[in-house]
Design goal:
Number of helices: 32
CATH topology of the largest domain: Calcium-transporting ATPase, transmembrane domain
CATH superfamily of the largest domain: Calcium-transporting ATPase, transmembrane domain
Number of strands: 23
Strand content: 15-25%
Strand order of the largest sheet: 8-23-22-21-9-18-20-19
CATH class of the largest domain: Mainly Alpha
Distance between the termini: 83 Å
Shape: elongated
Number of domains: 4
């Protein structure tokens, strides 16, 4: 019989599933049949992102629009005989590509190391014999065995479940281990998190053991469906890529029109056609900020290095700048905002009092091991499975069910091992009977035999334990107020805690105590509740607060329970008054238009599947928001890929999530993401500073060449002098701007709209104003020198135009703060670059070799002093404009304050 390839399998009995796959619930498949199915279905592997070839990595570095424009400019320069300029431009493009390639290769190697963390073996039964085989050789119909600590090798319909619990946080976002059962689920449309009779590829066994029939492998698994969804997602272009593409197109058109106009005017005035052609081509090459791609790549590479020092791996250089544009951070809860490590956070006592349980207060529970809090912890620990409380000898990690691990950790932190816990274990005696926990009973009981009798310890859900209790601790003759205890439980549960009720019963007489004796789970003394939670990561509340102060909206997207999600969101400051929570089923009921309208009033989404996370990201993007998504699970990967920037956890995250992301946080610290946002904002500001600097200087050169002849002046500069200015002034100072530190208030500003132009905020007005000033100063110097009969008029104009840009680069380091407040040495790289550029310009005036090459004439002391003085006017003008901006800003703030005081 050929296996049936249709489900859903969770609603069918295990016998039906075995029959459908022509398998056997005890003997599995034959070896020959397994081989045939492997040939038919292929390896049990999901198609992950394959390492890119070196050739494709190299090609990716030169697809940028600006690089294409530069290569065209190099070809034009070579065609006009200017081989030196052509080689210089080509070298800049190659340097740009080499830097990007090195960073990409480094990131690919790091990712290859992270991929080695996955599991690769599975235990199956073939021909009735238990075998260990590579996970890739598991086939549909195999009978697979699952044991604590193992990874689930495929999608499996359980046949047997013995205290089996799985950690599905990577797939569904459920923070708690899920109890499994072999009983079918009646609901055909039950979400993955509620299919208790299934175990899924990509999850792991928290405790217990079981077996089942493999119903899907490879790309047919739920994990494979998510990987396939990833392949259909086209990652969006970064905001800076969009801005630079538009800028490159506009700049190319403007330069072409300007150079044609200059050529026509020159020819009309009687200038030689060859001279005007060379001048126009030189201007076209000079007007293009050819250092921009290199400067941008250097800035991004330095940013990647800075983030690497803070434990963040950047896979895509452009992603760093995107971090600076983020307006919304959609983050997973489990493993991202929280530790994905259950802890006891509160003790609820029968008298209605509660004790917040942290490591700091754990030792203040009283020295007496028989006190109620310590008795509560001791009884809970004794009611755990035999494997609880042990650690892995190699890793030091706690073994067993996460809930029981949390109980034992709390007992140890309370000092019970040093103050009576070991003694209590000895007094407990021999472990005789264990009634295991299952999803029907919702409780677990362990009986110990001592020299004086028997003691039963019970733990479980409040509704399963309280009905079996008759009294409370210290009042064995009184009655138990169950209504009050349930009210305490409801209050603790409202805080997103998972509750464990604990009780015990002692029997002195020696009777026939077998596992069916009625006393074992009746007549208990109620000890109290343990409230458990997956606690927030250290520093997460502070990081969320920093995001809010930076104008960034945090949004929680999780597959976890709504109560748990809302409690964590409130504790972190993500969910505030007036904001709402939406569950996955509620989201399905909304059309995309309705979701877009409501999206910004919702701060928490719970019980989500991967496709729903994509809908949320797209709704925010529709509203023009720049969205970052953080996550660590398989279920987060599609949203990580669809977001403007995906940020994955590298330490506790899955391979699928890491490969879908642009940035991987190696320390899993949410605060590192905030540091990345700050770095992205710094880089973007430095990019805009360079663009302002380069375009101002290039526009000034165009204006000088175009306006000089119109004013009746001789051609102010020769083509070789234009290229010299462009090479000397754009190169080193522009690169040094990459080292400009972030301004103090950078994380107190609102994020930039993704569609905002590079020239927003008055930038183009500043470019036009300062370029006009530089051109007027240059032409004024030329006119005055000609009027005074100075033979060196062209060298003086050449010097003023070149050195004016040094004053400009010093002035634009900050949009508000004075260069004197910043300090000339706060960016030593820029100070050094300015000094080198000035020295090169002086050499161009006085070194004979440069005199011959650039057609310059040495200046006397008075001429040099005049040129330097005129050049410094630009710095004074930029500083004056910043003074006016500061004064205007101060008056606006004062006006807002006075209006606020008046309202009060």
């Amino acid at each position: 019989m050929t296996e049936i390839a249709t489900g859903p399998w969770h609603e069918r009995t295990s016998e039906d599933v075995a029959l459908a796959f022509a398998s056997h619930a005890h003997n599995g498949l034959s070896r020959d049949e397994a081989a045939r199915r492997l040939s038919r279905h292929g390896p049990n592997e999901t198609i992950r992102e394959r390492p890119r070839s070196l050739l494709s990595l190299i090609g990716a570095q030169f697809r940028d629009y600006m690089n294409i424009v530069l290569l065209v400019a190099a070809c034009i320069a070579a065609a006009t005989g200017d081989a030196q300029e052509a080689l210089a431009i080509a070298a800049l493009v190659l340097v740009n590509g080499a830097i990007g390639l090195m960073q990409t290769v480094r990131a690919e190697h790091a990712m290859a190391e992270l991929r080695k963390l996955g599991a690769s073996r599975a235990t199956v039964v073939r021909d009735g014999e238990r075998l260990t085989v590579p996970a890739a050789e598991v086939v549909p119909g195999d009978l697979a065995f699952l044991e604590a600590g193992a990874s689930v090798p495929a999608d499996i319909r359980l046949v047997e479940s013995i205290q089996l619990r799985t950690d599905e946080s990577a797939l569904t976002g459920e923070s708690l281990a899920v109890d499994k059962s072999a009983d079918p689920i009646a609901d055909e449309h039950a979400p993955l998190a509620e299919r208790r009779d299934m175990a899924y590829m990509g999850t792991s066994i928290a405790c217990g053991r079981g077996s089942g029939i493999v119903v899907a492998t490879g790309m047919d698994t739920e994990l494979g469906k998510i990987v396939a969804l990833l392949g259909r997602i086209e990652p969006p272009r970064t905001p800076l890529q969009q801005r630079l593409a538009a800028f490159g197109r506009q700049l190319g058109i403007a330069i072409a029109l300007t150079c044609v106009a200059i050529f026509a005017m020159g020819v009309a005035r009687g200038e030689a056609v060859s001279l005007m052609l060379l001048t126009s081509v030189s201007l076209a090459v000079a007007a293009i900020p050819e250092a921009l791609p290199t400067v941008l790549t250097v800035m991004l590479a330095l940013g990647a290095r800075n983030l690497a020092r803070r434990r963040a791996l950047v896979r895509n250089l452009a992603a760093i700048e995107t971090l600076g544009s983020v307006s919304h951070v959609c983050t997973d809860k489990t493993g991202t905002l929280t530790l994905n490590d259950m802890r006891v956070v509160e003790l609820g006592l029968p008298d209605g009092s509660c004790i917040a349980f942290t490591h700091g207060v754990a030792h203040s529970l009283g020295p007496d091991a028989r006190s109620l809090p310590r008795s509560l912890l001791c009884a809970a620990a004794l009611a755990c499975g035999e494997e609880a409380g042990e650690r892995d000898a190699d890793t030091g990690k706690w073994l067993g069910d996460p809930t029981e691990v949390a109980i034992w950790r709390a007992a140890r932190e309370a000092g019970l091992d040093a103050h009576g816990f070991d003694e209590a274990l000895l007094q407990a005696g021999e472990r005789s009977i264990e009634l295991p926990f299952d999803s029907t009973r919702m409780r677990m009981t362990v009986v110990y035999r001592t020299s004086s009798g028997w003691t039963a310890y019970m733990k479980g859900a409040p509704e399963a334990v309280l009905p079996r209790c008759d009294a409370t601790f210290g009042d064995s003759t009184g009655s138990l107020d169950r209504a009050m205890q349930l009210a305490i439980a409801a209050r603790m549960a409202a805080d997103g805690q998972r509750l464990i009720a604990v009780s015990k019963r002692e029997v002195k007489a020696h009777a026939d105590m077998d596992s069916t004796a009625a006393w074992i789970e009746t007549g208990h003394v109620f000890l109290g509740f343990l409230g458990m939670q997956d606690p927030p990561r250290p520093g997460a509340p502070q990081a969320v607060d920093m995001c809010r102060r930076a104008g960034i909206v945090p949004v929680m997207m999780t597959g976890d329970h709504p109560l748990t999600a809302s409690a964590i969101a409130r504790s972190l400051g993500i969910m505030s008054q007036g904001q709402s929570l939406v569950t996955g089923p509620e989201l399905d009921a909304l059309s995309q238009d309705e979701l877009v309208r409501r999206i910004e009033s919702v701060s928490v989404f719970a019980r989500l599947d991967p496709a729903q996370k994509i809908r949320i990201v797209e709704a925010l993007q529709t509203r023009g928001r720049c969205v970052a998504v953080t996550g660590d699970g398989i279920n987060d990967a599609p949203a990580l890929s669809r977001a403007d920037i995906g940020v994955a956890m590298g330490k506790g995250g899955t391979d699928v999530a890491r490969e879908a992301a642009d940035v991987v946080l190696l320390d899993d610290d949410y605060g590192t993401l905030v540091a990345g946002i700050e770095e992205g904002r710094r880089i973007y500001e430095n990019v805009t500073k360079f663009i302002r600097y380069a375009l101002t200087g290039n526009a000034a050169e165009l204006l000088v060449i175009a306006a000089g002849p119109l004013l009746g002046l001789p051609m102010p500069l020769l083509p070789i002098q234009i290229l010299w200015i462009n090479l000397v002034t754009d190169g080193l100072p522009g690169l040094a701007l990459a080292a400009e530190p972030a301004e103090p208030d950078i994380m107190r500003r609102a994020p930039r709209p993704p569609r905002e132009s590079l020239f927003a905020g008055g930038m183009w007005q500043r470019i036009v104003g300062v370029s006009l000033a530089i051109s007027l100063l240059t032409l004024g110097t030329e006119a005055c020198a000609l009027a005074a009969g100075q033979a060196q008029w062209q060298t003086m104009a050449f010097t003023v135009l070149s050195l004016s840009q040094m004053g400009l680069v010093l002035g634009i380091r900050s949009a508000r703060r004075s260069v004197f407040e910043l300090g000339l040495c706060s960016n030593r790289a820029l100070a050094g670059a300015v000094c080198v550029t000035v020295a090169l310009q002086i050499a161009a005036i006085y070194v004979p070799f440069f005199n011959d090459m650039l057609h310059t004439t040495p200046l006397d002391a008075w001429q040099l002093a005049v040129s330097l003085a005129v050049s410094s006017v630009v710095l004074a003008l930029v500083e004056f404009e910043k003074y006016l901006a500061r004064h205007h800003l101060f008056r606006k703030r004062a006006g807002r304050t006075s209006r606020h005081d008046a309202r009060l």
